[in-house]
Design a protein that fits this description.
By secondary structure, the chain is mostly helical. Helices cover 57% and strands 7% of the residues. The protein has five helices and two strands, in the order βαααβαα. A two-stranded antiparallel ribbon has the order 1-2. The chain is globular and about 30 Å long. The protein starts with a strand and ends with a helix.
Length: 90
Amino acid sequence: MTIRQKNTNPQLGQIFQNKRNELSLKPNSRQHFLDDRVQLNLLTPKDISLKSLTNIENGKNVPTLKTIKILASALEVDAITLLKEILLVI
């Protein structure tokens, strides 16, 4: 679940997008990322939707702590480290 924001926060979204791009998945798309993470059992299909990921990366939604933990696992990064990075931009 995410919280919809009136004002966008592109810096926050950029953190998630950069982490996803650092995985060097080909093709480099959000859908491929989600499919790959499900195949690797790092996500379940119900954990996060393509639309939610898109809105987070575009800075339109602020992810909840639960979503951050899910994304940290999918991005193969430590959740606390990711939270610290997020706190610098919110």
